Amino acid sequence: MEIHDPASILAHFSIIKDPRRNDWNTLHRLEDILTMALAAVIGGADGWDEIALFAKTKADWFQERLHLEHGVPSSDTFRRVIASINPACFAECLASWIASAVGRLGGDLVAIDGKTLRGSYEKDDPKAAIHMVSAWASANRMILAQYKVEDKSNEITAIPKLLSLLDLEGCLVTMDAMGCQREIARQLTDEKADYLLALKGNQPTLHADVKAFFADAEAHAFEAMDVSQYETEHIAHGRKERRRCIVSEDVSWLTQYEKWAGLRTIACVSYCRDVYSDAAFEQRYYLSSRAMSAATLMEAVQQHWEIENRVHWVLDVSFSEDASRIRRNDGAENFSVIRRLALNVIRHDETSKTKSIKGRRRQAGWSNDYLAQLLRL
Which residues share a beta bridge with 142? Predict the structure, then answer.
């Protein structure tokens, strides 16, 4: 997937309101501060001091491209200004840029999942680490948007606000059990999107009914039942994994059928893993508003977990997100937006011979030409 206009990422910084109130302490334009911060994070910086060092090291290069009459900012300026930006506006900037860069998402799979910034806690309150909910477009391999879970709340309240940032018409939106809520299903169908929701014990009656349905159907070898089945087997490195998906569109009998907007499909996905003779078996259940074959639904379930492997894991390994101790004001939340902007830009470069994200970050830090190419500076 090619980004339509990578340069627009800098143009979208203009929608962010400058948190500074007085002209006398505004020595640097907000868009210049954000551009330098993004460039630094792309080039390997993982904190305020590293951003300032990066800007100082490349001061002449930035002077040629930005408005820096007063030189490059200090680490305190980067910290104070970025941590004071309204997070909702910053998150909107991310979503706005992605919308302009990738166009419509119609037909794509969009995965919703949460991630805790583990280093963002205060020492006297280790439970205060912030939790972010993100949206990931599988086909485009782009982080679309993110939203912070409010203190003393959970993902259920944050997901509807995240969804409202996106144009999801025609998309299949996947979520784990936390997002399996009737209100969320209604919101998605109202927006002309489809859902695929993991069904667990937080919906006890519905979960019990669906589980009993598939258990009874299998006990009778699916006689006279219209179901779709699909199986795969994978063997590698001493590990054997068998997966089976069973899908039924017979849902009108469910006692809660009318409470779930657009419900058309229930599914059971089972996993049997043998690792050096140590066997494990697991079954998971799903609800969907889209009629799908078993093969298509299993593929969608597998694609959902790309947000863990291609986003959360990469942010921790290549950007050291979990190790970051940024936590004052809204610094952790806003820095996480910068990381995701940087990851999107780096991932979709098609010129570098280096395939790894960490390698491309180093290349951007070493090569001004490559950094300028990424940011269109």
Answer: 137
Residue 312 structure tokens: 């959360």
Dihedral, CA of residue 268, residue 269, residue 274 and residue 279, to nearest 10: -30
Per DSSP, the residues of 154-188 read: -HHHHHHHHHTTS--TT-EEEE-GGG--HHHHHHH
Question: Residue 122: helix, strand or coil by DSSP?
Answer: strand
CA distance 300 to 173: 10
What number of other Cβ atoms are within 10 A of residue 346's Cβ? 25
Tokens 């290349």 -> residue: 363
Give me the tens of pLDDT residue by residue for the chain, a chain 377 residues long: 344 444 457 778 878 888 887 665 688 999 999 999 999 999 999 999 999 999 999 999 999 999 999 999 999 999 999 999 998 888 888 888 877 776 667 678 999 999 988 777 766 665 578 888 999 998 888 899 888 888 767 889 999 999 998 889 999 999 999 999 999 999 999 999 999 999 999 999 999 999 999 999 888 888 878 889 999 988 876 678 899 999 999 999 999 999 999 999 999 999 988 876 677 888 999 999 999 999 999 999 999 999 999 999 999 999 999 888 888 888 899 999 999 999 999 998 889 999 899 999 999 999 999 999 998 87
Tokens standing for residue 98: 């992605």
Please tell me the distance from the alpha carbon of residue 28 to that of residue 33, in angstroms, as a whole number.
7
Pairing of strands 172-175, 109-116: parallel
Q: What is the pTM of this model?
A: 0.89
Distance CA 21, CA 143 (A): 32
DSSP per-residue codes, 135-155:
EEETTTTEEEEEEEPPTT--H
What are the extents of the domains in the chain?
8-87+328-375, 104-310
> How far is it, in rounded angstroms, from Cα 332 to Cα 79?
10
Contact criterion met (CB below 8 Å) for 345 and 45: no
The one-letter amino acid at 177 = A
Query: In angstroms, rounded to a whole number, what is the distance separating the alpha carbons of residues 31 and 8?
Result: 12
Between the two ends of the chain, the Cα-to-Cα distance in Å is 22
Strand segments, DSSP code E, in the chain are 109-116, 131-137, 142-148, 172-175, 194-199, 227-236, 239-248, 265-275, 278-288
